[in-house]
Write a structure and sequence with these properties.
Layout (H helix, E strand, L loop, with lengths): L1 E4 L7 E5 L12 E4 L7 H10 L2 E3 L6 E4 L1 E2 L4 E2 L1 H8 L12 H5 E4 L2 E4 L1 H16 L2 E6 L10 H9 L4 E7 L2 H11 L8 H8 L5 H9 L4 E8 L4 H8 L8 H4 L7 H9 L11 H6 L16 H21 L2 H9 L24 H16 L3
Parallel strand pairs: 3-10, 3-11, 5-10, 11-12
Antiparallel strand pairs: 1-2, 2-12, 4-5, 6-7, 8-9
Helix pairs in contact: 8-13, 13-14
Length: 368
Amino acid sequence: MKMINRLRQGYFSIFSKARGHKVDHEKWTSIVHIGAGKCGSSSLQAALSNRPTFSNASQDRKFKYISIQPKTTLNPTQIKLRIGDQPRNGIPSHSFDNIFFDVEKGTRTRKPERIREVRDYLSNLVKSEFTPIISNEALLHLSRKPIYNELFTELGMDSLVFLYIRPQVELINSAWWQWGVWGKMTFSQWYKGIQKTTHWNQYIRHIRDMDFVRELHVGICSNDVVSDFFRRIDVTIPNETALAHTNKSLGTEELSFLLRHRKYRPDPHTPNADAILERYPRSKYSQKAWCLNQNQVKMVLENHRNGNEELLELLPRNIADQISNDTKWWSAEAYSDRKRWNWTELKEDTRIIQQDAEMIRFLEANGL
């Protein structure tokens, strides 16, 4: 049996399990950030990687951010070494498919030894009075697969879960420039598929029913995700958050460059150049890219309208009011000033050739 506990402050909704007695919200033993992608995940991972060990304000709970990898688990010291002198970098956990399963032709075979290793690692942290923190935005999509409910339970997790969401139109635009445009599908093919993954109401219902979820907290990406996360667990917001806002969508000039020079951005999952070009001095003057025409905007809004109306019922009043009053969730008029950029027509003249040369020098100077 479930119950909904509505928190009426901050930017979170809380779903808690009723276990035959009044729920003690401090009983969770781990924290899992599950996404969504393009909703502040990289910024949060960067902040946690730069400050992987910390305590709450009252000093009665200690936290350790860890990164679970296929063959090892990185502790805070190892994470700090990995990011080195690049404070904008974050080290998330790896894909759970690769960590805990051999996946071949759609069949998942468990890796019992690796499961035991991670379970013991987490258990030892808790015994040492640390709360482990794990982050991987792809975990959101595992909530629909029963096998992962069993996995989290076997890992002994009893977790406070964080999920951040944003208006679907904004997310689809951002996701196209992050992943879609670098893949093999046409925009129309990709666009049809991505819409199936942005029904937040469905995910929330699935996550609530996972046995390892002690509490589920939902935040809106339009707020400061990093500050919200630390505030919710009663931790003084670290100075590192000033460095953490990363993985912002590039402008049309930087995207044009990468589309002309695909060796720097060969596929959807090699975004090294993006992270460097975020810091390119001229990037702040570059026009932001937009991939949807007005008809597509209207279609996205209509496809999600019923689900978003249910979302209002699932969330506490304060956050539901934010969504209800934000026209970006409901009206195409909110996007009337956005003009679709045709990324297939890449011009090349003397100015652009000179600008490309500048960007190449900038990338090479920053280690690419």
